[in-house]
TrEMBL record, chains A, B:
Highest taxon of the lineage: Bacteria
UniProt cross-references to PROSITE patterns, sorted A to Z: RECR (PS01300), TOPRIM (PS50880)
SUPFAM superfamilies xref list: Recombination protein RecR
Biological source species: Aliikangiella maris
Family assignment from sequence similarity: Belongs to the RecR family.
Pfam family, one: RecR_ZnF
Descriptive protein name: Recombination protein RecR
């Protein structure tokens, strides 16, 4: 009887979500209690089932509740082209472009020796094996354009280049002025890079 | 096997929360899967228990999983003073001021005849009974400063004034310039009201 009221506990629990402070948590709780109890119960059920059964795809390390994710099971995806990303959200972003038909490999992070995250932790042994087994002809490295992303990218390139008897095309996402970006507001390192990598148009 | 992946279902389910679009829903799902599965399971459990057992307090209509809410069970709160609010969130806001020691009554909305919300739906019979039973000496009407809030307030005032043999002080939250508000940016109806309700200081 003297426990903290359930509603307060619920409002606190909502604050484990990213970007949700006390105020939004309160709004969420009231919103669901007011008129969305069925949706809330559905969310509760999906949360429970997801946390219990979603693991990593045994091939690409993306999240899935099956052994292989839908993308790895899709025969129409070209398995000789592999795009390496840091997070599952990056796959969603690339898929949204509708211009990529190959497969993926998710590092689930990037190299960060100080935090104890080495090649093993980001699955580079599995990656190497996948590249060899699938006889990949192209690897696209799509890690972030951050220092950590670049370091990880360099590490992967040397690892792949050390695989004997493998002819493979390795590329990196192009960097430069974003579409719609105004030069005036662009940081100078991006601008310098765009200038250095300028492309002929005639 | 051909169901929509669990993760996609979870991302959709998150979008039943107010202010949560596809992008935030995705971020929430990944955040919980990455490193917060215990928190997520706790949230799922609290959601389920809350939706199943939180109902309205039989006295003030605020949310509670018990017959009477913590506030109505608190003997130190003066039951002869009653503050009438539209939503449970309004109680939280007033409690946060730390300056009110009476009880509350929650309308859970306001009069809205076109939507079929009449006096019965906002609990005015219960309110009338409560005022009489508790021998209230003061009622503070804290409905919103909107047209609907004002209409509801007027309706409540006439209802209370029709109770025979009841001497009761009825007040309404003061309206005017917000603390820190600059006149330059204040809407003219608030400014006109502040002027009309000007208070003597000497
Ligand atoms: Zn996969
Ligand atoms: Zn109550």
């Amino acid at each position: 009887m003297h426990d903290k009221p359930l509603l307060m506990q619920l409002i606190e629990a909502f604050q484990c979500l990213p970007g949700v402070g006390k105020k939004s948590a309160q709004r969420m709780a009231y919103h669901l209690l007011n008129a969305n109890r069925q949706n809330a119960l559905k969310l509760a059920d999906l949360l429970e089932r997801s946390m219990q059964s979603i693991q990593h795809c045994q091939q690409c390390r993306d999240y899935t509740e099956q052994t292989l994710c839908a993308l790895c099971r899709n025969e129409r995806r070209d398995q000789s082209v592999l795009c390496i990303v840091e997070t599952p959200a990056d796959i969603v972003a690339i898929e949204a472009t509708g211009t990529y038909a190959g497969r993926y490999f998710v590092l689930m992070g990037h190299l960060s020796p100080l935090d104890g995250i080495g090649p093993e932790e980001i699955g580079l042994n599995d990656l190497r094996e996948l590249v060899v087994n699938n006889q990949c002809r192209e690897v696209i490295i799509a890690t972030s354009a951050t220092i950590e992303g670049e370091t990880t990218s360099h590490f992967i390139v040397s690892m792949l280049q050390q695989i004997p008897d493998l002819t493979i095309k390795i590329s990196r996402l192009a960097q430069g002025v974003p579409v719609g970006g105004e030069l005036e507001y662009l940081d100078s390192s991006t601008l310098a890079l765009s200038l250095a990598n300028r492309q002929n148009i005639n």
